[in-house]
């Protein structure tokens, strides 16, 4: 099996590439500079050269707030890019694993979102992720759409690393206490994606670490675990202005994993402790 990874120098992409290599899977990964997913001709040459059996499409425009000001680029990367990849997967009879997001939902639910719940994004990033999903579902049979949330991992910047920095400084800091999701460790997600692409159980799945918490609870746990003297202070998101609207509750139900016979990911605090040890 040959696996092609887009966005391979991003936070998740790097852990996916590492997991594939650790499992002796033949793989190639490309940064944005080596392979721009908005460039169909470049993608076509790449498919011809490497003849992948599976594409794991991690490349995305992921700056949720900036996307509100940069809609054109966000649309080109997240929608046109996904369309290009899907069209080439169809042409080459290749499986596609597309990474989507909890932000396709509006966050107004009071219970974990199921696969059958209708998406209703409230920010532009969410709109583009959902549009890409719709295209892939129409264009392909051999697809996995994997919705995940609040990623943290060794590579790249993320919320957890930012909180570690803040908790080690002397400067007071506020964290929203009404945005709730399931923090997810990229190494765990990468292992799960490897299991999934080996199967032919195509469809849409929710894959996050187990458990849920607010951003504030997560920050407080990090400060406690790292013995910080500088604890976060809670703030309601209506007092914390951001360019994009952020959905309040985006916990994803994992019943799709149970139905598909996939093992659920570990609990998020267990994942966080394993991650924090990698920083020692
Ligand atoms: N981070 C989260 O909390 C989260 C939550 C839910 C879902 N997701 C999804 O998970 C996936 C991976 O996210 P991540 O956190 O790993 O994001 P990331 O670190 O921002 O990685 C995305 C990668 O895509 C690359 N990229 C951007 N435009 C590109 C283009 N035109 N062609 C090729 N590559 C391009 C970026 O390169 P540059 O850095 O050079 O721009 C970056 O390396 C994304 O699909 C994201 O939507 C993430």
Distance between the termini: 35 Å
The name of the CATH topology is: Rossmann fold
Q: What is the typical, i.e. mean, pLDDT?
A: 97
Q: Which ligands are bound?
A: NADP nicotinamide-adenine-dinucleotide phosphate
Assembly form of the protein: single chain
Note the beta-strand portion.
Answer: 15-25%
Low-confidence stretches: none
As for the number of domains, it is 1
The CATH homologous superfamily name equals NAD(P)-binding Rossmann-like Domain
What is the C-level CATH assignment? Alpha Beta
Form type = globular
Order of helices and strands: EHEHEHEHEEHEEEHEEHEHH
Describe the structure in your own words.
By secondary structure, this protein is α/β, with parallel strands linked by helices. It has one domain: NAD(P)-binding Rossmann-like Domain (Rossmann fold, 3-Layer(aba) Sandwich), CATH 3.40.50.720. Helices cover 40% and strands 16% of the residues. It contains nine helices and twelve strands. The strands form four sheets. The chain has a six-stranded parallel β-sheet with strand order 2-1-3-4-5-10, sandwiched between helices. Strand 4, helix 4 (124-139) and strand 5 form a beta-alpha-beta unit. The radius of gyration is 18 Å and the shape is globular. The two termini are 35 Å apart. The mean pLDDT is 97. Bound molecules: NADP nicotinamide-adenine-dinucleotide phosphate. Residues 6-7, 9-13, 32, 35-38, 58-62, 77, 81, 99, 101-102, 129, 148-151, 156 line the site of NADP nicotinamide-adenine-dinucleotide phosphate (NAP). NADP nicotinamide-adenine-dinucleotide phosphate (NAP) binds at residues 6-7, 9-13, 32, 35-38, 58-62, 77, 81, 99, 101-102, 129, 148-151, 156.
